[in-house]
Design a protein that fits this description.
This protein is α+β, with helices and mostly antiparallel strands and 151 residues long. It contains three helices and six strands; from the N terminus they run H-E-H-E-E-E-H-E-E.
Length: 151
Amino acid sequence: MLVADLQARIEAEVPQLSGRVQTAAELSELVRRKALPQASPFAFVLPLGLRPQSSGDAAAGAFTQAVEEAYAVVIFARAAGDVTGGKALPTIDEVLWAVVNGVCGWGPDSSTGSEAIGVFHLSRGQLLSAEAGAVIYQLDFGLLSQVRIIA
C-alpha cells in the first residue's frame, strides 16, 4: 500500500495541507474520541482496498492480473461561527481541486517496490458531511497495478 507515498505527495503539492495530512490510525482515534481535527484544513489518507480489473492470466509458469489499488483522501475544513458549515465550502473546493491536481497523473517511483503500471486517477468525489461547523469531503483515487507471480 502506498499510503505514506500519497501522504507525502499531497503535503508536497498542496501548501494548505503541509504538515496536516494523517492516516487511518489518526482518523480512527478522532472517531473514537468523537472529536474533530483542531487544524483546518486537514486531510486523511486511507487505503480502500484492491479491485480486480481482470480474472488474470496463467501461462508458461506465470500468473498476471491487473488490480486497481484504491485510496481515499478525506478533507476536513472548519467554518468558525457557522453551524451549517457552509462558510467552509470555498475552502473545501480550493483544497479538493489542489489535491486532485497534485495526485492525478502522478505515479509512485518503482524504487518504492510498487508494482504500479499506471498513474493515479480520480474515481469519485463526494460530500460526507456539512454540519456542526465543519465540512468533510472524500476524494477516491485509483492506481492500476499488476500481480505477477513466476513459478
